[in-house]
Design goal:
This protein has 171 residues and is mainly alpha-helical. It is 66% helix and 6% strand. It is elongated, with a radius of gyration of 17 Å.
């Protein structure tokens, strides 16, 4: 196991823990929370492309990102989004149902590796891990697109009416 595999596996773990931690607590839907997945996607995409990946690596990452956004759009339905009448703040909460989505993505990565081994494909661990990271970040992005589509009408239909900063989370 080389250092690239370890680094990408650790990065995937950090992303999963970060995403799930955001889902188990009640958080306000803010401008920052809706922009973060987009910024993260662009930053990680840039880091990936700077490493000059092979064409099959680029294809695997694009497929992972597209599948991630798709699963995020679907799984975004399990995110509870509501407006607190007392404060007017729009909140979100994912919980255990969203954890199932993340676990399925991780299991899909393992299954895809077995398929590549069985088919004698030349895709390596680092490429598969990069595709997994793309799928996780894509899921995060898709989930936030769905959350935004549900939160904006609750905030008067305007992105600028959402708070620009986070409020202390409620447990």
């Amino acid at each position: 196991m080389n250092s690239n595999v370890i680094v990408t596996a650790l990065l995937a773990l950090v992303i999963v823990v970060f995403i799930f931690a955001r889902q188990i607590i009640q958080l306000p839907v803010t401008q920052r929370s809706l922009l973060m997945p987009l910024i993260l996607s662009v930053a990680l995409g840039g880091v990936f492309l700077v490493s000059h990946p092979a064409p099959e690596g680029i294809a695997a990452v694009i497929i992972g990102a597209v599948l991630g956004v798709g699963t995020g759009l679907v799984s975004g339905q399990v995110i509870r989004v509501w407006r607190d009448e007392a404060t007017g703040i729009v909140f979100q909460h994912g919980g255990w149902r969203y954890l199932i989505v993340l676990i399925v993505l991780l299991l899909a990565r393992v299954l895809i590796r077995f398929v590549f081994i069985w088919s004698s494909s030349a895709v390596d661990e680092t490429t598969l891990n990069a595709a997994l990271i793309a799928a996780l970040v894509g899921n995060f992005l898709g989930r936030d697109i769905r959350t935004a589509l549900r939160a904006l009408p609750l905030a008067g239909g305007s992105f600028t009416k959402l708070s620009s900063r986070s409020i202390a989370p409620k447990r």
